[in-house]
């Protein structure tokens, strides 16, 4: 059996660099007050010896853990199956990695999970939290507030208490929906239907509002409720065809919903876009480019949303410190709204 090689100690680094242990500690923990030449000797000794700071001891000194909790208010089956979450997590991970922070993923599926997440956040294990995919009446915001950790939300929270001091990143869901529906109307379509997302989420509610902005007084029967999944898109499309067989266009609340709708239209012998034009939302390339036909959709930069959430958390609560020029600040809040654009493909 091979012997375990002892880890290099702070004292060994100090001896190699020819400085005191206290000097090494200040350099390793990022404190100021060490001359550049001495700091460089310490960094060189750290590299030569392969010294790795003890994170627990370092946290006692710096009061930082270099770890961020990412809390998704969805069951794991949804998070790992939906490419939307993969893109958002990729953006978050890239930004945290660039700043030498660890990502701690926490998923919630029920009341016990909420309690567990609340205890973890309150336990001082992380420096902050990124929370996304909130639903109406979700207890997570309250748990996060009670935990007292800095937090950035993905998506506009629907605060019942009128709070305007939360930091969040969202896309222009309402404006993107308006653009999608106006595009369909510009093609001469007159019976434009909408398949919603889950309306206890602000993104879906905002897309429905954008549809209504562009189709004032539209037949209520042209709106069917979905859940951001292909199966939900299939159910809603069948419902729409039963109710409104003369529809000639569909705006789906996301690309997965649109993919399900396209399958049902094909089953019913409806040609896309000849008989029915279809527009989605998200521009998730694994979905939008592989549907039959390829999907016209509203693009939101999901990965950039994740990067910006992490950037805002790491740089402080003022969104002006990290907001790209292309984004807008939500008046009266600390929210950042990223632009959306219509991407033309064969379905509309």
Query: C-alpha Rg, in Å?
Result: 25 Å
Number of helices: 14
Indicate the overall shape.
elongated
Helix and strand pattern: HHHHEHHEHEHEEHEHEHEHEHEHEEE
Q: Which strand order spans the largest sheet, edge to edge or round the barrel?
A: 2-1-3-4-5-12-11
Poorly predicted runs of 5 or more residues: none
Q: Give the helix proportion (percent range).
A: 40-55%
The separation of the N and C termini measures 67 Å
Give the tally of β-strands: 13
> Which structural class matches the secondary elements?
alpha/beta
- Give the averaged pLDDT, no decimals: 86
Q: Outline the biggest β-sheet.
A: 7 strands, mixed
Strand content: 15-25%
Quick rundown:
The protein has helices at residues 10-17, 21-28, 36-49, 55-62, 76-81, 83-98, 111-122, 140-147, 173-186, 202-214, 230-243, 255-267, 285-288, 302-315, and strands at 67-72, 102-107, 128-132, 151-154, 167-171, 192-195, 223-224, 249-252, 277-282, 296-299, 328-330, 334-338, 341-343.
Q: Could you walk me through the main structural features you see in this protein, from its secondary elements to its overall organization?
A:
With 348 residues, the protein is an alpha/beta fold. 44% of the residues lie in helices and 16% in strands. It contains 14 helices and 13 strands. The strands form two sheets. Strands 2-1-3-4-5-12-11 form a seven-stranded mixed sheet, with helices on both faces. A six-stranded mixed sheet has the order 7-6-8-9-10-13, sandwiched between helices. β8, α12 and β9 form a beta-alpha-beta unit. The model has no long low-confidence stretch (mean pLDDT 86).
């Amino acid at each position: 059996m091979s012997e375990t090689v002892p880890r290099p100690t702070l004292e060994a680094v100090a001896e190699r660099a020819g400085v005191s242990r206290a000097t090494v500690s200040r350099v390793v923990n990022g404190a100021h007050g060490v001359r550049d030449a001495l700091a460089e000797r310490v960094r060189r000794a750290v590299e030569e010896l392969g010294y790795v700071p003890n994170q627990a001891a370092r946290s006692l000194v710096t009061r930082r853990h270099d770890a961020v909790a990412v809390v998704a208010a969805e069951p794991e089956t949804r998070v790992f199956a939906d490419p939307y979450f993969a893109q958002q997590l990729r953006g978050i991970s890239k930004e945290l990695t660039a700043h030498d922070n660890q990502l701690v993923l926490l998923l919630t599926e029920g009341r016990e999970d909420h309690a567990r997440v609340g205890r973890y956040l309150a336990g001082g294990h992380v420096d902050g939290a990124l929370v996304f995919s909130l639903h109406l009446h979700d207890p997570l915001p309250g748990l996060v507030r009670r935990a007292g950790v800095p937090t950035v939300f993905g998506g506009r929270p629907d605060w019942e208490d009128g709070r305007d001091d939360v930091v969040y990143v969202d896309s222009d869901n309402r404006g993107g929906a308006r653009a999608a529906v106006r595009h369909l109307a510009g093609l001469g379509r007159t019976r434009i239907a909408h398949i919603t997302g889950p309306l206890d989420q602000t993104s879906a509610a905002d897309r429905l509002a954008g549809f209504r902005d562009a189709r004032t007084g539209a037949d209520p029967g042209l709106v069917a409720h979905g859940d951001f999944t292909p199966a939900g898109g299939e159910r809603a499309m069948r419902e729409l065809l039963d109710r409104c067989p003369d529809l000639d266009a569909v705006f789906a609340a996301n690309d997965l919903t649109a993919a399900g709708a396209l399958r049902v239209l094909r089953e019913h012998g409806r040609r896309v876009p000849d008989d029915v034009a279809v527009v989605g939302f998200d521009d998730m390339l694994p979905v939008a480019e592989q549907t039959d036909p390829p999907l016209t959709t509203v693009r939101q930069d999901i990965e950039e949303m994740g990067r910006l959430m992490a950037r805002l958390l790491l740089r402080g609560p003022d969104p002006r410190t990290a907001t790209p020029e292309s984004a807008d600040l939500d008046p009266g809040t600390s929210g950042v709204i990223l632009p959306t654009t219509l991407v033309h493909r064969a379905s509309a």
